Amino acid sequence: MMIRKAWIVSIAVVALLASGCATSTEEDIPWSIKVVAPEHYDIWGVNMFLEKTGERSWRAPVGYATCCWKGPNGPSGSHHGLEPFPELIFIHWFSFAEQKYYAKLIKVPPDLQDRMREPASYKTQVDVRSGPRHTMAIGLAPGGTVVVWIMNQIGNEIEVMRMQASEGYGDPSDFTERTKGYLKRHGDYLQEHGIPTEGW
Do residues 139 and 69 touch, judged by C-beta distance below 8 A? Predict the structure, then answer.
């Protein structure tokens, strides 16, 4: 009788450990989101709200987003955790170059998290490894272009969505001082190259 009880207990422990391993593997994926802007076309993220229906709605602060959108330094920006993985993302931002506000509600494709789980190669200081594309990068460009990439390292990002935002509400004078600093850094570039609103 004691042996039988011990056998049942050991099976239960193994089952719990196995389920614990499966859960911890899932939780070990550092899902995150970041907001980026093209070089010289900085933005200020006024608000970003995320929602998983029936579970959680929350705000992720954005603030200043600058270089880079692509190339050896992009997409790059500050990260925020994604827990749980959202179904909706609303972002409202100010474009310093255009002196305009934009807003966009992004409906996250139902299969996007599964696509992000697919292994992608990335380089470390010692070797090449493989892991999920755990980061969603949202790019915001002049003209209201919104591009979404998934990645686990700069250089292996893949584009998954491209959208057009609408002009949003807000008073550009709220950013008068920040705009002065922005123009000191990028005014000459804007005069030479203008503000492209297409082709991003």
Answer: yes
Sign of CA dihedral 87, 67, 41, 60: positive
CB-CB contact of 88 with 50 (8 Å): yes
148 and 137 Cβ atoms separated by less than 8 Å: yes
Short-list 152, 163, 189, CA closest to 34: 152
Please count the other Cβ atoms lying within 10 Å of the Cβ belonging to residue 97.
Answer: 24
**CA–CA separation, 1 and 62 (whole Å):** 62
Q: Distance between CA atoms of 148 and 136, rounded to whole angstroms?
A: 7
pTM assigned to the model? 0.83
**140 within 8 A of 91, measured Cβ to Cβ:** yes
Q: Are 107 and 91 in contact (CB under 8 A)?
A: no
Q: How far apart are CA 35 and CA 41, in angstroms?
A: 13
Q: Which helix (H) or strand (E) holds 17?
A: helix 2-27
Q: What's the number of CA atoms in the CB half-sphere (13 Å) around residue 165?
A: 29
**Which candidate, 95, 23, 33, places its Cα nearest to that of 60?**
33
For residues 39 and 31, give the distance between their C-alpha atoms in angstroms, rounded to a whole number: 25
Pair of tokens at residue 38: 């093209």
Total residues found in the chain within this entry: 200
* pLDDT tens string 6-45: 444 444 433 433 444 433 345 589 999 999 999 999 999 9
